[in-house]
Design goal:
The chain is elongated. The protein has a six-stranded antiparallel beta sheet. Strands 1-2 form a two-stranded antiparallel ribbon. A two-stranded parallel ribbon has the order 3-10. The protein is of the alpha+beta class. It starts with 6 loop residues before the first helix and ends in a 9-residue tail after the last strand. It folds into two domains: about 60 residues, Arc Repressor Mutant, subunit A, CATH 1.10.10.10; about 160 residues, 3-Layer(aba) Sandwich (Chorismate lyase). Helices cover about 30% and strands about 35% of the residues. The longest helix is centred in the N-terminal third of the chain and has 14 residues.
């Protein structure tokens, strides 16, 4: 153990290694707190702290009266260049993807949307609120804004399939570029309701601006991803120096 590392951090790391090496398999019950205390020769408080952190981060789940179990593997999504739809990314992981529409409303552009979408104040904007699920479990809560003039009359069918695909196929609007900003946020009352989690759960928060080939802004969206259900992969290619 590193000198600067606390006991509970060391135990958390060891347990995480056992999970990731498949020593503790998905769905398997792990040793009890008492057994872990004996294994690591530490207090129950120390073990409990490590287990609580792993549970919050989505690696373990606790079942009342039954014990602590290894959680389902987190859903992986690619942030680097990819044209794969959400359903395709989920399918290769053996899960079924569903996109559920919460609501579509037309709202007047306020000062924020004027800046975000490069529109005029009071312009009609379609506000599309959705939840994405993998095997029935919510992983992403999203609010997207698309100007009416860009794609008038977006429907439930458009919203519950690939929105970018629908823009291209039904409205002849091609998304050529997206700019994404990612940070950590905590689930508030609304997002926690749709993500089926407690308020205050750490989430990945991503703001996305989508442009067409002319640089016109097509969409602005805000997405909350459950931190205990999702991780992201970033792939970079480095060209050989000449």
């Amino acid at each position: 153990m590193e000198k600067s590392q606390s006991l509970h951090a060391y135990i958390k790391e060891e347990l995480l290694n056992r999970i990731k090496s498949n020593e503790y398999k998905k769905g398997e019950k792990i040793p009890t707190e008492l057994e872990l205390c004996r294994d690591f020769d530490v207090s129950r408080t120390t073990v409990r702290t490590a287990l609580n952190q792993l549970t919050l981060e989505g690696y373990l789940t606790r079942q009342q009266g039954k014990g602590t179990f290894v959680a389902e593997q987190k859903l992986k999504q690619t942030l680097s260049h990819t044209v794969k739809r959400y359903s395709d990314q989920v399918a290769v992981q053996g899960k079924k993807a569903v996109i559920e529409l919460i609501a579509i409303n037309v709202v007047p552009a306020n000062e924020f949307l004027v800046k975000a979408l490069d529109v005029t104040l009071q312009d009609p904007i379609q506000r599309i609120e959705r939840v994405r699920k993998a095997n029935g479990e919510p992983t992403q809560y999203e609010i997207a804004y698309i100007p009416w003039d860009v794609a008038p009359g977006i429907t439930k069918e458009h919203a519950e399939t690939s929105l970018y695909g629908s823009l291209k196929n039904d409205f002849n609007v091609h998304i050529a570029k997206t700019i994404e900003h990612i940070e950590i946020a905590f689930a508030d009352e609304r997002s926690s309701t749709y993500l089926h989690c407690e308020e205050g759960l750490p989430c990945f928060y991503i703001e996305t601006t989508a442009e067409n080939e002319l640089g016109q802004i097509i969409e602005f969206s805000r997405s909350y991803f459950r931190g205990d259900k999702t991780n992201f992969m970033i792939e970079r290619n480095y060209p050989l120096e000449g």
